[in-house]
């Protein structure tokens, strides 16, 4: 079966509701089966609300790109300039704060197209390090990042509801 034609575009404030809905859907699809219902509900209703996600789209330190197959939104990436791990303090870097694809589109090239967009955006912004945090139990994502040349250099906590989880911090030097 041929790979679908995937297009990527920079998101605007007009896309805020679409991004919020896509964010909530992809996060839930990715993690609901691996966490308790109560922790997922708490996270979605307190930390990851539609309203908070809509507001993010207009923040000047955040950049969103949307992935489409035909006219259907199938994934997105959120790049963040701001707080960085101590190990990267003297480097010019940008964080891949979120990169998600709809579950039924995983393996169809959406993630790779979004990751290439992250590399291109980092170069355009004259950043030489991409970094991200990924849940240590998300083996599929870790393998994807490793295929793209990311390596683990630390860890941090992520709170999902009342569950304190461990995220790996990974980076890739780009030239």
Side-by-side strand order of the widest sheet:
1-2-3-4-5-7-6
Task: Give me the CATH architecture, please.
Answer: 3-Layer(aba) Sandwich
Sequence of secondary-structure elements: EHHHEEEHEHEE
Main sheet characteristics: 7 strands, mixed
Q: Mean of residue pLDDT?
A: 93
DSSP helical segment count? 5
Question: Any overview of this molecule?
Answer:
The chain has helices spanning 16-31, 37-47, 50-56, 110-124, 139-147, and strands at residues 6-10, 62-69, 72-80, 93-101, 129-135, 151-160, 163-173. α4 links the parallel β4 and β5 (129-135). A seven-stranded mixed beta sheet has the order 1-2-3-4-5-7-6, sandwiched between helices. It has one domain: Gcn5-related N-acetyltransferase (GNAT) (Aminopeptidase). With 175 residues, the protein is of the alpha+beta class.
Outline of the structure:
The chain has helices spanning 16-31, 37-47, 50-56, 110-124, 139-147; strands at residues 6-10, 62-69, 72-80, 93-101, 129-135, 151-160, 163-173. The protein is of the alpha+beta class.
Features:
175 residues; alpha+beta; Aminopeptidase; 7-stranded mixed beta sheet; 5 helices
Please specify the SSE layout and strand pairing:
Layout: E1 6-10, H1 16-31, H2 37-47, H3 50-56, E2 62-69, E3 72-80, E4 93-101, H4 110-124, E5 129-135, H5 139-147, E6 151-160, E7 163-173
Parallel strand pairs: 4-5
Antiparallel strand pairs: 1-2, 2-3, 3-4, 5-7, 6-7
Helix pairs in contact: 1-3
């Amino acid at each position: 079966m041929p790979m679908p034609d995937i297009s990527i575009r920079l998101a605007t404030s007009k896309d805020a509701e679409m991004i919020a809905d896509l964010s909530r859907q992809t996060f839930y699809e990715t993690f609901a089966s691996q966490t308790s219902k109560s922790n997922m509900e708490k996270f979605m209703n307190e930390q990851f609300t539609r309203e908070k996600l809509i507001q993010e789209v207009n923040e000047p330190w955040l950049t969103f790109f949307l992935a489409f197959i035909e006219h259907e939104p199938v994934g997105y990436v959120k790049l963040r300039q701001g707080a960085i791990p101590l190990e990267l303090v003297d480097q010019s870097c940008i964080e891949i704060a979120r990169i998600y694809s709809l579950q039924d589109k995983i393996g169809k090239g959406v993630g790779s197209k979004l990751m290439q967009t992250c590399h291109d955006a980092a170069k355009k912004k004259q950043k030489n390090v991409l970094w991200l945090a990924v849940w240590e139990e998300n083996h599929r994502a870790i393998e994807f990042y490793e295929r793209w040349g990311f390596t683990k250099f630390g860890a941090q906590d992520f709170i999902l509801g009342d569950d304190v989880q461990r995220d790996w911090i990974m980076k890739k030097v780009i030239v």
